[in-house]
């Protein structure tokens, strides 16, 4: 009862309702909330402090960025269900948020448009490619798949290494420049069963339950909402399917944000577990692939996800 009263008191204020409504749609940094609410940083921080103390919001720090998200408590879910996102002021906020997100996405899109030609070289700098590919292939244990989807395919390298393990592969990317290179790669290698398609990996034009293998290789750290990609992967996943995620282990290399358009500084097992718990998936393997230059290189993780059996 005490907790409920504290939560209701914290939520019962217009700016704080706006914050809760925004966080029900995205994880946001304080800077993004400041620009959304058009209020000073100290004011926004004061509101956030009250929401944090009432257990409605949680925060996590990554390098110099602090992300806010709704807490997982049932009271938070009950309170946010009462918020009507069709309210004119909240609708305006949603539109403004949409614009902030488009700007963020543009940073990554511009980066990939500018770096598409060099990507195969850049990707080897950030990870020990060969051991990652070996670990991915080991994870499928010699299985063959009718239908595979590669989410955020870039130049199509992951398709190339899985080409002999799937009858049909559809590779999606939002960058036309990357797709051009992927198509050329597939044509040159005679991979007629592999197609490169334009698509946003949070909402793909593919049927539910249609993919037995889904790969998401070095993509999630660019996204505003990695959770939305996992939700979409779960929608597409066949009941006996596998999702292979490769991304960085947690790190502190802030320059990757400024110079390489990263948003997230890697992921912890606990976050992947959270995605699984909320999407009826089970985390069957978490494998660290240590970079051979351990001082300057980044460790990479392979996570293997399957539909939860109950
Ligand atoms: C770092 S590259 C990785 C490419 C490839 N998986 C690899 O490892 O070589 C990330 C790719 O994700 C794509 N991407 C980022 N956000 C996306 C989105 N929302 N929908 C589709 N593709 C996206 C980018 O265009 C880029 O080609």
Which keywords apply here?
alpha/beta, 2 domains, Arc Repressor Mutant, subunit A, 7-stranded mixed sheet, 3-stranded antiparallel sheet, 13 helices, 10 strands, binds S-adenosylmethionine, 45% helix, 310 residues, Rossmann fold, single chain
Could you characterize the architecture of this molecule?
This protein is α/β, with parallel strands linked by helices and 310 residues long. Helix content is 45%, strand content 23%. The strands form 2 sheets. A 7-stranded mixed β-sheet has the order 6-5-4-7-8-10-9, sandwiched between helices. The protein has a 3-stranded antiparallel β-sheet with strand order 1-3-2. α10 links the parallel β5 (166-173) and β6. It starts with a helix and ends with a strand. 35% of the residues are buried. The model has no long low-confidence stretch (mean pLDDT 91). The structure holds S-adenosylmethionine. The site of S-adenosylmethionine (SAM) has 22 residues, from α6, α9 and β5.
Quick take:
With 310 residues, the chain is an alpha/beta fold.
Question: What does the secondary structure layout of this molecule look like, with pairings?
Answer:
Elements lengths: L1 H10 L2 H10 L4 E2 H8 L3 H13 L3 E6 L2 E6 L3 H8 L6 H28 L3 H7 L3 H11 L5 E7 L5 H6 L3 E8 L2 H13 L5 E5 L12 E7 L8 H11 E12 L6 H6 L8 H9 L3 E9 L10 E8 L3
Parallel strand pairs: 4-5, 4-7, 5-6, 7-8
Antiparallel strand pairs: 1-3, 2-3, 8-10, 9-10
Bound molecules: S-adenosylmethionine (SAM).
Overall pLDDT confidence: 91
Fill in the CATH topology of the largest domain: Rossmann fold
Query: What is the helical fraction, as a range of percent?
Result: 40-55%
Number of helices: 13
User: Tell me, what is the CATH class of the largest domain?
Assistant: Alpha Beta
The structure class reads: alpha/beta
Could you say how many structural domains there are in total? 2
Annotated CATH architecture of the largest domain: 3-Layer(aba) Sandwich
Low-confidence stretches: none
From the N-terminal CA to the C-terminal CA, the straight-line distance is 33 Å
Computed over alpha carbons, the radius of gyration is 21 Å
**Biggest pleated-sheet summary:** 7 strands, mixed
Extended strand count: 10
Q: Strands across the major sheet, in which order?
A: 6-5-4-7-8-10-9
Any idea what the CATH superfamily of the largest domain is called? Vaccinia Virus protein VP39
